[in-house]
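Technical appendix A lists one of the benchmark inputs used to test multi-chain prediction within the project. The record comprises two sequence entries:
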Amino acid sequence: GQNIDQPTEMTATEGAIVQINCTYQTSGFNGLFWYQQHAGEAPTFLSYNVLDGLEEKGRFSSFLSRSKGYSYLLLKELQMKDSASYLCAPKVAGSYQLTFGKGTKLSVIP
Amino acid sequence: DTAVSQTPKYLVTQMGNDKSIKCEQNLGHDTMYWYKQDSKKFLKIMFSYNNKELIINETVPNRFSPKSPDKAHLNLHINSLELGDSAVYFCASSQGPSYEQYFGPGTRLTVT
């Protein structure tokens, strides 16, 4: 089974940096996905971390600590268009199915 | 060119009816999925289908059945619709379990 925890909502100011945390308890853990979902739209892939450490991709970075069951998504130079829900999804080795967290709704304000 | 497409985009129907949602992917992926996103925006896996192997989430009622005529299509058939089935249903596909999933635009099902 899995237990995934993310903050429900966050608010940040345009131009600022925000960190969205995700903690998980996943048997057979084998990596963690982050997806972005704008209101009324489909989720889109942001990152996939397998090894410990920080992976940077433009304004977005994702961090993983396997020993702590912890990941975060770091968004820099926030833009209004970053207002969306951010979903973390730990992956189980050998499984095709992803279990998503309940998502963090980020609101970026001027 | 749409990678993962779903039809219809909106579906309004009455309780007790049977309906189908179609999904097609043109990415050449081997694995397809169906998700349900309820009013609280919780995205839950329903099925995954890989090379004719169907994996069903045990919480899905047997009124729901996926049907795959070929590798590029995974349709969702729902029998005896109930009010609680109202949700947005997303189809997705991926190259494999450790690859990103590409989602369709979703089908908003409303059962009255």
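The longest strand of chain B covers residues 43-50. The mean pLDDT of chain B is 93. Comparable benchmark entries are summarised in Table A2.
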